[in-house]
Amino acid sequence: MNQTIDRNQIEQLVRNALRGGGPSATPATGKSASAGGISPPGWIDGQPNLRVSISARHVHLTDEHVETLFGAGSVLEPDKDLYQDGFYAAKQTVMVVGPRRRMLPNVRVLGPTRNFSQVELALTDSISLGIDAPIRHSGKIEGTPGCVLVGPAGTVQLDQGVIRAARHVHMNFSDADHFGVKNGDMMQLKIKSHDCSVVFEDVLVRADEAAKLEVHIDTDEGNACNLDAACEVELRKDDCNCKH
Ligand SMILES: [Zn+2]
């Protein structure tokens, strides 16, 4: 799609403009990538290009729940591509309803659909909903609280699936080699920001072949360090259990 290509080109231009002064950990080496070499996904000039993104509250849905909420035959309509290839924010939103009729309107649905529905909130969201959502990694929803989802065509009662998504970093295997980590390891993320720098521990590595290097934190975590105004981000192996 032309639109997608244009957006990628714009993103690339913005990233290039930010390098050196913006919230990118890529050192300015002055060297360009070797001609003809195939770069791993997301790499720029032969280096990993770290991106830190706030994952705002959102919902993942099954095909069946999409039809219940938006009408028979409905499918998710991609609105905005996410940085990770193949993932998108859909045009559709739902209302998330907690106990005592407290609710969050217009919660974005992310695609593609999954085998189970899941609601990912920041702590502030879960307090305003009145749901005690535990911190879990995506997909680990056994024993978590449920909620009611309301769409234009119907409602879905989720018995479980409301979580605060644990901070994590997506990366491909070249990124993993670069940092000396493997899938399931923990890393540390340092965010330098005026008067509110933070170090996040317990950043889980989620490595697969196609991923681009990207940390996902929630809105509360991003706001705590004013991520948009951050001047430096650094990702490193958590070596507290180092056996060397
Ligand atoms: Zn993620």
Task: Describe the protein's architecture and organization.
This is Phosphate propanoyltransferase. Its cofactor is Zn(2+). Residues 17-42 are annotated as: Disordered. The protein has 244 residues and is α/β, with parallel strands linked by helices. The protein has two domains: 23-28 and 41-53 and 167-237, Barwin-like endoglucanases, CATH 2.40.40; 56-165, no CATH class. Helices cover 18% and strands 32% of the residues. It has five helices and 15 strands. The chain has helices spanning 2-18, 63-70, 123-129, 173-179, 219-224, and strands at 51-54, 58-60, 78-81, 88-97, 103-111, 118-120, 135-136, 147-150, 155-158, 162-165, 168-171, 186-192, 198-207, 214-217, 232-237. Strands 2, 3, 4, 5, 6, 7, 8, 9 and 10 form a nine-stranded mixed beta sheet that branches. The chain has a six-stranded mixed beta sheet with strand order 1-14-11-13-12-15. Strand 8 (147-150) and strand 9 form a beta hairpin. The longest helix is centred in the first third of the chain and has 17 residues, at 2-18. The structure holds zinc ion. Residues 168, 170, 216 line the site of zinc ion. Zinc ion binds next to strand 11.
